[in-house]
């Protein structure tokens, strides 16, 4: 099996900084509260795929560690922010969650161009969501940057008994597309969700000059300057209710 597709489950436990319990130090740090270090880069990632495959669930699991059993469909686009640290850099991720319904394509397509990473999701229990993949690839070809990193995700891995699309089918599809990674995940069980984003960001960073700010990146997708949350030329996102 190609190791490119092997995104291991994150290690359990860990996390949480060590607590220095010295009272003197505690009082001192309370007095001199340091502002958080600003992000080194800002990066946009877009999540696409057919209706109901779990795009919002993947985003919300990653950003808020929540899962909604009965969510309403996304209308247009929504986004969330999460800051991660990788390769010694602090990266502010702007994650765009798009509506899977075709009638929103004219809105969602406007968000492809600025994305440095694209997560294309299908549902391993729904044949039609896998059959739709070529249609989504056409959208990528038409609207996204050629340099965007691509990751195919077979979601709802917790529903193994209802599986219709085998892992091999997913792997085969991704292997036909240059540079596209593949993994299976479960937003419900929080399996491989962090890995989706961290792997994608790591791939993006690996192709970037990290020490010398690149003006092309600084002016568009990645910026050392504060930027408005919504690209000015785009319509504001339509918020979903849950
Ligand atoms: N069992 C299971 N259900 C999931 C998983 N991810 C999402 N769901 C469910 O699938 C349904 C659709 O999830 P959403 O996250 O709203 O899907 P979406 O792709 O954003 O849908 P649209 O906004 O309509 O395009 C919801 O009922 C979720 O609870 C998963 O990993 N496992």
UniProtKB/TrEMBL annotation:
InterPro entries per UniProt: P-loop_NTPase, Small_GTP-bd, Small_GTPase, Small_GTPase_Rab
UniProt KW keywords: Autophagy, Cytoplasmic vesicle, Endosome, Golgi apparatus, GTP-binding, Hydrolase, Lipoprotein, Lysosome, Magnesium, Membrane, Metal-binding, Nucleotide-binding, Phosphoprotein, Prenylation, Protein transport, Transport
Location, primary (coarse class): cytoplasm
Ranges of Pro residues composition bias in the record: 228-242
Location in the cell: Cytoplasmic vesicle, Autophagosome; Golgi apparatus membrane; Lysosome membrane; Recycling endosome membrane
Domain of life: Eukaryota
A GO BP entry: autophagy
Record field: catalytic activity: GTP + H2O = GDP + phosphate + H(+)
EC number: 3.6.5.2
One Pfam family of this chain: Ras
Cofactor(s) required, per the database record: Mg(2+)
Region described as Disordered: 1-36, 223-242
GO molecular function, one term: GTP binding
Similarity section: Belongs to the small GTPase superfamily. Rab family.
Protein name, per record: Ras-related protein Rab-12
Organism: Perca fluviatilis
